[in-house]
Structure formats: C-alpha cells, structure tokens
Design brief:
single chain; mainly alpha; binds zinc ion
Length: 77
C-alpha cells in the first residue's frame, strides 16, 4: 500500500497522494489556467500565491507547499 507523500493517508493507486490531496492538486491545475489568463502568473508565482493568501483551503495549501519545496531552487544554496 502506498501512502500519501503529504499526510501519510492511504494513497490512490494511480498516484502518490491520497484522494483529498489528489483532488486539491486537480483543483490547483484547473484553476491555474484561469489565473494564468487573468494575471499572467507563472506556475511558480501561482504556487507562491496559493501558499500566501488566506483563501486557500488547507488541502490545497499543503499541496502547494509541497510543490514549492520541490521546485524551490533557492533551497539548494
Ligand atoms: Zn494526503
């Protein structure tokens, strides 16, 4: 059994996230299109915004923070 890389719940067979975090990830991807069109944000900027605004739900925030930590090149230095 695989476990969600964020919360340790049982992960979906086709991914590395549980259904809650997978759903949050799907939401992140689907709202990115409209954010990109409206604000011209890059993926990294969008993830940054999700981590910072209060409107972000708990699941989405946890996924966004994980994406950020995986992407963040400044952590290398
Ligand atoms: Zn999870």
């Amino acid at each position: 059994m695989k476990l969600c890389t964020i919360c340790g719940r049982e992960a979906l067979r086709e991914g590395s996230l549980c259904r809650y975090h997978q759903e949050a990830l799907d939401n992140i991807h689907s709202s990115f299109e409209s954010w990109r069109k409206a604000n011209g944000l890059s993926w990294e900027e969008y993830i940054e915004v999700l981590c910072e605004i209060d409107e972000t739900g708990q699941w989405v925030r946890e996924v966004a923070e994980q994406i950020k930590s995986e992407n963040d090149p400044s952590k290398e230095t």
